[in-house]
UniProtKB/TrEMBL annotation:
It comes from the Bacteria. It is found in: Cytoplasm. This is [Ribosomal protein bS18]-alanine N-acetyltransferase. The keyword Ribosomal protein applies. Its main location: cytoplasm. CDD domains: NAT_SF. The keyword Membrane does not apply. Residues 1-144 form the N-acetyltransferase domain. Pfam families: Acetyltransf_1 (PF00583). The gene is rimI. Coiled coil: none annotated. SUPFAM superfamilies: Acyl-CoA N-acyltransferases (Nat). The lineage of its organism: Bacteria, Bacillati, Actinomycetota, Actinomycetes, Micromonosporales.
Length: 144
């Protein structure tokens, strides 16, 4: 079940962040800032537990950025990520975005395949974007 990301979801989301991203994980203040800024954030709950989360920031007049998508490893490849991206896609359309953009690690092929299945295409590369690993980020775009 997908629902609004609330402040009490931050702690379980941080556990997922640590599992997936290690030293490059987002911090609690980063999520607090996203929520305080009014960005669109959702969680995927299974039996009341947070197993995934995703966020979208609208950039008027016609862009939206997917800020993050994370799914607990034991729930990956079960449609959780796809459900969250579907939800973000619908919200982007609802707010009038004509283009959705995102950054994804150049070595994260499963995520790249997921985004490509929606029609996202690589439009750029940010060298050394993810720190401290110095991993490049691919900038992907999809027109609505």
């Amino acid at each position: 079940m997908i629902s609004d990301f609330r402040w009490w979801h931050i702690e379980p989301v941080l556990t997922i962040e640590d599992e997936l991203f290690g030293a490059e994980r987002w911090t609690a203040p980063m999520f607090w800032n996203e929520l305080a800024s009014g960005h669109y954030y959702r969680v995927y709950l299974a039996k009341g537990e947070v197993v995934g989360y995703a966020g979208l920031a609208a950039s008027p007049p016609d862009e939206a950025w997917i800020n993050n998508v994370g799914v607990r490893r034991d729930f990956q490849r079960r449609g959780v990520g796809r459900a969250l991206v579907d939800d973000l896609h619908a919200e982007a359309a609802r707010v009038g975005a004509r283009q959705i953009l995102l950054e994804v690690a150049a070595d994260n092929e499963p995520a790249q395949r997921l985004y490509a299945s929606y029609g996202f295409e690589v439009i750029g590369r940010r060298r050394g974007y993810y720190q401290p690993s110095n991993t490049d980020a691919l900038v992907m775009s999809h027109d609505l």
